[in-house]
Amino acid sequence: MITRAALALILSSASPALAEDVRLAFPVDCTLGQDCHIQQYMDQDPSAAARDYRCSGLTYDGHKGTDFALPDRAAMAAGVTVRAAAAGMVKGLRDGMTDGAPLSEVQGRECGNGVVIDLGRGWETQYCHLKRGSLRVTEGQEVAVGDALGLVGQSGKAAFPHLHLSLRHHGNPVDPFAPEGKGCEEEPAKSLWEDTPLYRPGGLIALGFAGRIPSYDEIKAGDAHHDTLPEDAPALVIYGYSYGTQKNDVLRLSLAGPSGTVIERDVVLEKPQAQSFRAIGKRAAAGTWPAGRYRGTMTLLRDGRVIDEKTGALTVQ
């Protein structure tokens, strides 16, 4: 005969002890807010709507992982290492898919180049969108926390260079930021991270300067920014590259030089956007610009509150 106490013990053992079963280390060789950011969190809404674990919109319907994004393709080309967030055995992998390939070429292989690691006890992690030819592990290999798996890429269904990290328990997606999936008015009591990454409800990817309004592709490639411009540059332009913005957010841009303010403006964003850029500029009235150091500031505001801010310097010579 099974006593009530024994039955309770059996039931508690059968349910996943989330906080005790697994802990994740940060999976990318980058620093959040400096040279990478979390573009999207796991979708916590079971309906056709979408919300992240803080009840904000930094996700999309059906998203089953966390996206760690690089600022541009130049950072991807330089090489940023993806590391094992938890120890286990390589259960499966794929390599050889082209980074940035059209969606028509990735149907059924949306993860792109990736690795699945069996952590034991029904847990597994999946790492997607790795750079072609960068995988450093083999099937059946045992990996420790922090072991290099490959490089951040843009393979599969990926509009920008990033690592998509998924955590599953018996095949079911688990959000490591909120494994119990309860509430969002404050930080969840439980997290499966060794050191939980700071939540940002959107932010700034890059601040840059140019002699003309750059194209969006130049910004995404990392080719738009100039540290120096000549005195006879046709214009001085400051641009801001942002992510996770919402309708009515304000992007405040300003540029000042040796003779004072060159240009400043508040740009009101008209709709939510996963990523976007805005630029303002001014033509040289006298044909040349005063030589010297120029300072740019970019601030993202939401409901009058500062969400993020970046500063940068330009030399005119």
From TrEMBL:
<protein>
    <submittedName>
        <fullName>Murein DD-endopeptidase MepM</fullName>
        <ecNumber>3.4.24.-</ecNumber>
    </submittedName>
</protein>
<dbReference type="InterPro" id="IPR011055">
    <property type="entry name" value="Dup_hybrid_motif"/>
</dbReference>
<keyword id="KW-0378">Hydrolase</keyword>
<dbReference type="InterPro" id="IPR050570">
    <property type="entry name" value="Cell_wall_metabolism_enzyme"/>
</dbReference>
<feature type="signal peptide">
    <location>
        <begin position="1"/>
        <end position="19"/>
    </location>
</feature>
<dbReference type="InterPro" id="IPR016047">
    <property type="entry name" value="M23ase_b-sheet_dom"/>
</dbReference>
<feature type="domain" description="M23ase beta-sheet core">
    <location>
        <begin position="62"/>
        <end position="176"/>
    </location>
</feature>
<keyword id="KW-0732">Signal</keyword>
<dbReference type="GO" id="GO:0016787">
    <property type="term" value="F:hydrolase activity"/>
</dbReference>
<dbReference type="Pfam" id="PF01551">
    <property type="entry name" value="Peptidase_M23"/>
</dbReference>
